[in-house]
Write a sequence for this structure.
């Protein structure tokens, strides 16, 4: 065991207690898709029962790659990732847990006044309050507060203090205030062509397909700043194709799927899309 990296030793200890783990690289980000899984062509989510066909041995799909299997954790592909890892993450929902991520002092003060006591782990700027019970994950349910459970990962920062208690209705109620994280493609994302412009110059299928494929690749290969990468990519696509009617629901869905494979929520995808349209005056 002395030859194992510190993150891998921690991961194996957690996995032995039934907590699915994965490595995080610099920037607290998961390792990106390998070339064979780029743009989610493999079906994604290799360790989920409804995963699809992916059998990738690499640590390739963020929270969905989290595992308790020591054979996987110590496999050559994963060992290479652990050597580059800066910390360990886990999939709370798969462990039957929910993490209320309090990002600053104001959020911590709110939790102390509002939520029942439970196990608390100190973070860089705030605290993780961990409850027994799983639910759907939601970001920004109130200022400085995220909920991480199913289909999300949280950093492992130690055992914390206090006694683990059951997930309260107060946390579930917070999530109910957010729109469901289900994205429906707009029926039309085209806008009227500017006056004086004739037939769309981008209706060559190869040109459009190449642009969308490059945009998907840019998102899925991003190793940091995922939010800004998604926004910048959508802005670039809209600046080229947003005024001529080229884009279809299918194109937009491909971009959103790529973003969600990197951990973006449907809500963040739609916010980025709307912000990009506003920036361009669409």
């Amino acid at each position: 065991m002395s030859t194992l990296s510190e993150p891998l030793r921690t991961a194996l200890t957690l996995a032995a207690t039934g907590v699915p783990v994965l490595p995080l690289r610099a920037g607290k980000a998961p390792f990106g898709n390998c070339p064979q899984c780029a743009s989610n062509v493999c079906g994604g989510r290799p360790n989920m029962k409804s995963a699809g066909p992916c059998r990738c041995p690499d640590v390739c799909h963020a929270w969905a790659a989290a595992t308790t299997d020591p054979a996987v954790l110590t496999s050559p592909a994963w060992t290479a990732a652990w050597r580059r890892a800066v910390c360990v993450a886990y999939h709370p929902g798969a462990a039957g847990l929910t993490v209320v991520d309090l990002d600053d002092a104001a959020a911590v003060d709110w939790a102390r006044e509002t939520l029942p006591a439970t196990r608390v782990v100190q973070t860089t700027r705030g605290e993780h309050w961990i409850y027994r019970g799983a639910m759907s994950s939601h970001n920004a349910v109130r200022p400085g507060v995220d909920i991480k459970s199913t289909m999300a990962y949280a950093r492992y920062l130690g055992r914390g203090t206090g006694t683990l208690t059951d997930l309260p209705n107060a946390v579930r109620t917070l999530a109910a205030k957010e729109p469901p994280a289900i994205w429906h493609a707009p029926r039309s994302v085209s806008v009227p062509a500017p006056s004086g412009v004739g037939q769309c110059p981008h209706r060559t299928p190869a040109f459009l397909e190449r642009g969308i494929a490059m945009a998907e690749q840019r998102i899925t290969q991003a190793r940091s700043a995922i939010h800004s990468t998604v926004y910048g990519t959508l802005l670039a696509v809209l600046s080229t194709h947003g005024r001529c009617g080229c884009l279809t629901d299918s194109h937009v869905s491909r971009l959103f799927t790529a973003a969600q494979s990197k951990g973006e929520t449907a809500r963040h995808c739609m916010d980025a899309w709307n912000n990009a349209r506003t920036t361009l005056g669409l």
